[in-house]
Every structure is written in C-alpha cells, then in structure tokens.
Amino acid sequence: MTFGLRDLEAILSRPAQPPLPGQTSISVASIWDHVYEGPGPCRTDTFGQACGAHRDEHQHVPEQA
After folding, report:
1. Are the beta carbons of 16 and 41 closer than 8 angstroms?
2. Which of 4, 35, 36, 54 could form an SS bridge with 60, CB 3.0 to 4.6 Å?
3. What SS3 state is found at 50?
4. Which sign, positive or negative, has the C-alpha torsion 40, 60, 53, 33?
C-alpha cells in the first residue's frame, strides 16, 4: 500500500486516542538527551520549547574552556 501526502495529512489530523487503562505518559525530555547550552538556564530548543533546566540537571555538559 502506498501513502500519498494527502493520506498522511488525513492520518495526522485524526484526534489522539484516549490512554488505555493504567497507561501513563513520560516526559519527552526524559527520552531526548541534549547538551546543556548556557550560560544560565539551558537555551536548547526541545521540540519548539526552550529546555530552561539548570546546568546540573543535564547529563551532557560541555567541557569548560
């Protein structure tokens, strides 16, 4: 089966299904690692939203020059 752009748009425009009983969501930030961009709160753009977390909350921190 081949999908065209209109088919894809139709699929993506469908409303999200309600969660299953017992299903929980996780933060996107917990599954998407990035390097801290400072100074101050992190300025990394994470899916259209600035991270804003403190430097110490990041797993990946660049070496100090």
Report:
1. no
2. 35
3. strand
4. positive
Beta-ladder partners of 49: 46
Nearest Cα residue to 38 out of 6, 7, 12, 60 = 60
For each of the chain's 65 residues, which pLDDT tens digit applies? Answer: 677 899 989 988 999 888 889 887 766 555 457 777 888 888 888 777 788 888 887 776 666 64
**Distance between CA atoms of residues 7 and 25, nearest Å:** 27
Q: Are 43 and 65 in contact (CB under 8 A)?
A: no
Using the Cα atoms of residue 49, residue 50, residue 52 and residue 58 in order, give the sign of their dihedral.
positive
DSSP lists the bridge partners of residue 34 as none
Structure tokens that stand for 6 in this block: 């209109």
